[in-house]
Design brief:
Blueprint (H helix, E strand, L loop, with lengths): L4 E7 L2 E8 L2 E5 L1 E4 L21 E4 H5 L2 H10 L1 H5 L5 E4 L2 H7 L6 H10 L4 E2 L12 H21 L5 E2 L9 H14 L4 E3 L3 H5 L3 H14 L6 E3 L8 H6 L4 E4 L1 H7 L2 E4 L2 E4 L11 H4 L7 H25 L2 H8 L3 H11 L2 H7 L6 E2 L9 H10 L7 E5 L2 H4 L8 E6 L3 E3 L12 E2 L5 H18 L2 E6 L5 H7 L3 E5 L1
Parallel strand pairs: 4-11, 5-6, 7-8, 9-10, 10-11, 14-18, 15-16, 15-19, 19-20
Antiparallel strand pairs: 1-2, 2-3, 12-13, 16-17
Bound molecules: guanine and zinc ion.
The site of guanine has 13 residues, from helix 4.
């Protein structure tokens, strides 16, 4: 079978891809709005206008309602919902985690999803909550694994199968489970049981869980973040390698009078102005009905996905993540993922521009990658590193080599002045974070090449960094 997932653009761990399903392709990253088969606030056939290409609904709700069940079995889920694009179905696992038990076996609900013509079906995985003991997470994960194996034998040839990754907040279990599931060659890999992390704003823990799952997964498979629907975290999740989102957030937040934006949430009643130009907000009246609020929430969610896709095309996804991660819990998450720079360095494609958007930019993978690039330089002997070449021209002949210095990257030879990132970066005057990174890379170069270095610096260079540098280089104030 040809690959059902084709990747066309990449940036950080994010990608634009195409997932082929029986009812047509889904361009990723994609948000699948949750529609309730009983009472949808926004009808399935209306979802397209907001940008939805595919939907997700709950097969268990259909299954346990006689009328819906019969209609779905005779006419199919697409006819029942009145939507002819791709429909993913969930299994009732979430009901299991909320109510403690459900009245159907996994095998039965998978066969039911197959029989009603679902495009992507899901077995009954066990959504083990965060922070439970390792033994429980392992025990439940083994049940999930068994159900996925069983589902592979009864999902049919048409329906794609989602294989949820569990393991609670045990990162080693997440990674191992992902690695095992990769060998089964399912079609979609959802990361499960993360809703409690998102509800309590534990974005740092969420990021660690996503990174652990991705570390174990084959990179050519689409990853779904179960239950993620707040647009402020889409950029972060996409950068970490999530391709699909599903959420009832647009409706749940609307019910609570909450107005979503890509940078956070507002209580509608606090808004004298609506900071958005979607058709609902453009009308001007800040007193929105629940239905209008749900529509706005959908508009901004889909607009954010377009912003993210364009950022991927432009090679600017990391910049976008930095801009979005300003809410404290998200900033914490950004700092968490920066510590895993090394894994990003290895995969990030070549870039053509670097915009320094905040002190966090000094810790971007490109900065660490530049340090590796410096290692390729052939350097020996006496080296002058200068922050102001005009002032050091007279002394250059005393050295074997002269390097320039640009924060946050560090030292570079004139030949690299026009290349990425030195030549293609927009950086404000050096700040504490950027000089720190630059000096770190300089020290790394001096140490690895065993250089006899002199650093000629102007007064924009931070004292603290100079103190650190002084054990590796002669300091020369300009
Ligand atoms: N929806 C939100 N979280 C989960 C999960 O862990 N498993 C399934 N099947 N659905 C979910
Ligand atoms: Zn709006």
């Amino acid at each position: 079978m040809p690959d059902r997932f084709e990747i066309t653009h990449k940036d950080v761990f994010g990608r634009i891809g195409k997932l082929t399903t029986p009812h047509g392709p889904i361009e990723t990253p994609a948000l699948l709005p949750v529609v309730n088969p009983n009472a949808a606030l926004v009808a399935p056939d209306e979802m397209r206008q907001f940008g939805a290409v595919a939907l997700i609904t709950n097969a268990y709700i259909v299954y346990r309602n006689t009328r819906l069940k019969e209609a779905a079995l005779s006419g199919g889920i697409h006819q029942l919902l009145g939507f002819d694009g791709p429909i993913m179905t969930d299994s009732g696992s979430f009901q299991l985690s909320t109510y403690g038990s459900i009245e159907v076996r996994s095998e039965e609900i998978v066969a039911f999803q197959r029989d009603i013509g679902s495009d992507i079906g899901t077995p009954i995985d066990i959504p083990t909550p965060p922070d439970v003991p390792f033994e429980r997470a392992l025990r439940e994960l083994n049940v999930t694994l068994e159900r996925i194996r069983e589902a592979m034998t009864c999902c049919g040839a048409e329906m794609l199968l989602a294989a949820p990754i569990q393991g609670s907040t045990h990162l080693d279990l997440r990674e191992q489970h992902a690695r095992l599931l990769s060998t089964l060659d399912a079609d979609v890999y959802p990361i499960g049981a993360v809703v409690p992390l998102m509800e309590s704003y534990r974005y740092s823990d969420l990021s660690n869980v996503i990174m652990a799952c991705k570390a174990g997964l084959a990179l050519n498979k689409p990853v779904h973040l179960f239950g993620a629907g707040h647009p402020m975290m889409f950029a972060l999740a996409v950068a970490l390698g999530c391709d699909l989102f599903d959420s009832a957030a647009y409706a749940l937040y609307a019910r609570a009078g909450r107005y979503l934006t890509a940078s956070g949430t507002h209580q509608l009643s606090d808004l004298a102005y609506l900071p958005c130009s979607c058709p609902v907000c453009a009308a001007g009246d800040p007193k929105l009905t629940e239905r209008e609020l749900a529509e706005h929430n959908l508009w901004v969610s889909f607009a954010e996905l377009k912003t993210i896709k364009q950022a991927i095309v432009d090679g600017q996804l990391w910049e976008l993540v930095e801009r979005r991660c300003r809410y404290p819990a998200l900033l914490q998450a950004l700092r968490t993922i920066q510590k895993s720079c090394a894994s990003f360095e290895a995969i990030e494609p070549l870039k053509c521009s670097f915009l320094y958007t905040s002190t966090e930019s000094a810790e971007r993978p490109d900065v660490a990658r530049f340090s590796k690039k410096l290692n390729n330089l052939e350097l020996t002997g006496r080296v002058l590193i200068t922050t102001n070449r005009k002032k050091t021209r007279d002394m250059e002949q005393e050295f074997d080599t002269t390097l320039l210095m640009k924060a946050p990257f560090g030292p570079y030879p004139q030949e690299l002045a026009e290349t990425y990132p030195i030549g293609q970066s927009e950086v404000p005057a050096p700040d504490h974070a950027s000089t720190k990174s630059a000096v770190r890379n300089l020290i790394e170069l001096i140490r690895s090449k065993n250089l006899e270095a002199t650093f000629a610096y102007d007064d924009r260079w931070n004292r603290e960094d100079l103190v650190e540098l002084s054990s590796y280089a002669t300091l020369l104030p300009l």
